[in-house]
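Why should sequence recovery work at all? Because a backbone constrains its sequence more than one might expect. Tight turns favour small or flexible residues, buried strands favour hydrophobic ones, and helices have their own preferences. The token representation captures these environments compactly. In the example below, the structure is given first.
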């Protein structure tokens, strides 16, 4: 059905948003870590690819 998302897509989106919160909190508390941001960008791109392939 167009416009609907399945459970794995929603879970991946929630994981991506949660990851952003964690990486941002880490950066504020302890300073920036490039590998964490790189990992979050990769996760975001994978989520975006999953959303695009589901439609």
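From this structural description, the recovered sequence reads:
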């Amino acid at each position: 059905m167009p416009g609907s998302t399945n459970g794995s897509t929603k879970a991946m989106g929630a994981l991506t948003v949660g990851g952003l919160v964690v990486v941002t909190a880490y950066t504020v508390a302890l300073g920036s870590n490039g590998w964490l941001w790189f990992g979050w960008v990769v996760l975001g791109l994978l989520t975006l690819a999953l959303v695009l392939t589901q439609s």
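A few observations help interpret the result. The two ends are 9 Å apart (CA to CA).
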